[in-house]
Amino acid sequence: MERRQFIGTSLIAGLGTFLVNPSELFSGTIVEQVNLSPNNDISLSPFLWGDDLHKVLQVSNLDKTVREALHHNYEYFQLGMGWKVGSQDLLKIIDYLKYEIKENPESKWFSQKISLYFGLLVGKAHTKFIHSSSETSQGISEKDIYRDCYLIKMLQNAGEEKNRIPITKSLKKESYDSVKEGFRLMRERNLLRMHTYKAEFSDAEKWIGDVIDLHHESADNDEKYAKIYCNPNPEKIEKYILTPQFYNEEDLIIKTAKDIQMFTIAGQIDLKPSLNSEAKSQHAKALQEGCNLSFACGDYLKSTISKDAWGKILGD
């Protein structure tokens, strides 16, 4: 397997996002006034899911201002997914955004804040349908790694049939070192990308210490990832992927995301068939929910639904 292809298709912003607190990035805004908590999910799956959702939202009928903000500020969308916020605080955040869109669209970091807020919003959909064991255990679990490797391979297999990477079979022995190196580079590049959020922090020494700790913790996982990626156990794939219906590439909304990835879809499209189709997998159901939450938010921002209706959609 060619290393550049591995890095190019696997590098999804996400690692270490909980080290970058949005309230520090956007001091003096509504983000400082709400209760944010890190997801503490160090697996890649939520961000690979978020990447699919981000693609689909790009071709949706969301307002142009929102779509452009998401397009140009991808890292902030993924940053939002790395944090949790309650429904009542989300109401406050979106109310603040609605005010800014109407009264102060030239405010500082306006576009980045839109992307961040939508990331916080859609995280609810992922939490609802896809529960990661990282939320209740120390470190990353075997289930997390199997799911991460499975999604990475599905992402890589979006191209021509002849280039498909085996899902249940072992790769050639010489692939192991290349794959392990690929995970190392992916991890280090993601750590470097955190610097692009904001170069200075109020407690730089603590932040650097946290990054070093995360670096060492994540480095210990490189070998675990490489072993499972190169030598998956079919019984574990059945247990963690197939039986719970974690992912099904035949789900229409997943096919749509894959078509967007391969540039067979360009411009806005009617997503109703994808949203109304019966989704079999957790991944697809969460994508549908993420889209519906985003569209409802867009409607509220345009005042086509009431605040009460928007609040009911968010739930408790």
Please write out the topology.
Blueprint: H1 3-10, H2 22-25, E1 36-38, H3 45-58, H4 64-72, H5 74-81, E2 83-85, H6 87-103, H7 110-129, H8 142-156, H9 175-193, H10 204-230, H11 234-242, H12 252-261, H13 272-276, H14 282-301, H15 307-314
Antiparallel strand pairs: 1-2
Quick structural summary:
The chain contains 15 helices and two strands. It is mostly helical and 316 residues long.
What this model shows, in words?
By secondary structure, the protein is mostly helical. It has one domain. Helices cover 61% and strands 2% of the residues. It contains 15 helices and two strands. A two-stranded antiparallel ribbon has the order 1-2. The protein is globular and about 60 Å long. The N terminus is likely disordered.
State the main characteristics.
316 residues, 61% helix, globular, two-stranded antiparallel ribbon, disordered N terminus, mainly alpha, single chain, 2 strands
Strand-pairing-aware structural class: mainly alpha
User: What would the principal axes of the Cα set say about the shape?
Assistant: globular
Side by side, the strands of the main sheet go 1-2
Extract low-pLDDT stretches. 1-13
What Rg do the Cα atoms give? 19 Å
Fraction in beta strands: under 5%
Major sheet: 2 strands, antiparallel
The average pLDDT score comes to 82
CA-CA gap between termini = 46 Å
Number of domains: 1
Strand segment count: 2
Percent of residues in helices: 55-70%
Total helical segments: 15
* SSE string: HHEHHHEHHHHHHHHHH
